[in-house]
Amino acid sequence: MSEVLSQAEIDKLLAALTSGEMDADELKGEKSQVKVYDFKRALRLSKEQIRSLVRINESYARLLSSYFSARLRAFVDVKLETVEQLPYEEFIRSIPSQTLLFVFQAEPLQGRMVLEVPPAISYAMLDRLLGGQGFSKHTNFNYTEIDRLLLERLFTQSFEHFREAWANVTQLSPRLDTVEYSPQFLQLVSANETVVVSAFSVVLGDVKGFMNLCIPHIALEPVIERLSSHYFLVHQQRYREDDKKTIRQQLLNTEVEVIVELGRVALTVRELLGISPGDVIPLDQSIHKPLRVKVDGEVKFYGNPGTVNQHMGVQIVDIQRSGGNVHEQ
Predict the structure, then answer these.
(1) Where in the chain is the domain with CATH 2.30.330.10?
(2) CA distance 104 to 115
(3) What is the tens place of the pLDDT at every residue in 214-268?
(4) Would you tell me which of 192, 212, 231, 233 could form a disulfide with 116, CB atoms 3.0–4.6 Å apart?
(5) Is the backbone peptide bond immediately before 282 cis, with ω within 30 degrees of 0?
């Protein structure tokens, strides 16, 4: 860091240079280095505009978390990690040679955009849609026609939340254009054209991965003037309230597993191996006490068993609260 010299120090330096005690080269310090400007990586959005895109994509990530959690009936965590500008060819080189590419349009934005979903994430989501636990053990990239239709429907509906995330900037009309499975067949813009790539981390159970949203700079040109802090400050309050309402609605539609537990018992391995049809196993549940009702594995209620329209049912009598039960009158 440079320091401000006093007049006495300046006079001393001049005297040393005049007498030859100090070489002028010693005062040059480090030579200024000229950096080569790479036109292929030309930055076309300002830092303020990038910050605006970060806000939009953070909202999009929250909406996707709620949407996927509701559709897949499992908690899905989607978070925005980075937003950066780079040449289109660099984006294509950075993604797998076999991956899921949802190409879509969103008027009035110009041209086409793409959402890239890697096989690990798409197979885990597909497993949940088909009733599985969300595992992704597929080693080959081979979707059946049913697989493709299910995934296409899942992500086509997710573009509605892309529209919601941009609602405070402009009213978009997103629609799926096509689905590709290899980046070599994907030609959105020329190789050197600048694109904005937003990377989202996705966690579904034990499966983790990244989705990438690629938007060419040319697509953003109609709304670039609106990507400013001033514009967002004006709309910030309404943006937050709409966001809360959307997330709440998605959560209210999320299904949860409810189990009525008849009782418990501890057995040795020897006793377990000796069980045969006709054996009676005493449980720890008293017939005079209500049964435990679990919601997603946690005891939330207590109830009495019975029948409802020729089906087994349970009548809630207590609610589990922290510190004990509260009787529901």
Answers:
(1) 255-319
(2) 8
(3) 999 999 988 888 887 666 555 555 556 666 777 777 778 778 889 999 888 898 9
(4) 212
(5) no
Q: Which residues of 277-307 are buried (b: 16+ CB within 10 A; e: fewer)?
A: eeeeeeeeeeeeebbbbbeeeeebbbbeeee
State if pTM tops 0.70: no
Q: Is the dihedral of CA 283, 285, 288, 293 positive or negative?
A: negative
- Which fold, 255-319? Surface presentation of antigens (SPOA) (2.30.330)
Chain Cα centroid distance, residue 44: 26
Q: Is 47-237 CATH 3.40.50.300?
A: no
**Range list for CATH 3.40.1550.10 in the chain:** 47-237
β-bridge mates for residue 321, sequence order: 324
Residue ranges of alpha helices (H) inside the chain are: 7-19, 47-72, 88-94, 119-129, 145-165, 217-220, 229-252, 269-273
Quote the tokens at residue 86: 């780079």
Handedness of CA 25, 27, 30, 31 (dihedral sign): negative
List own/partner pairs for 58-62 with CB under 8 A and 24 or more apart. Answer: 59/164, 59/165, 59/239, 59/243, 60/161, 60/162, 60/165, 60/213, 61/200, 62/243, 62/247
User: pLDDT digits over 66-89, tens only?
Assistant: 999 999 989 999 999 999 999 999
User: What order do you get walking across the sheet with 113-117 strand by strand?
Assistant: 76-87, 194-204, 207-216, 113-117, 100-107, 173-180
Tokens 């080269």 identify what position? 25
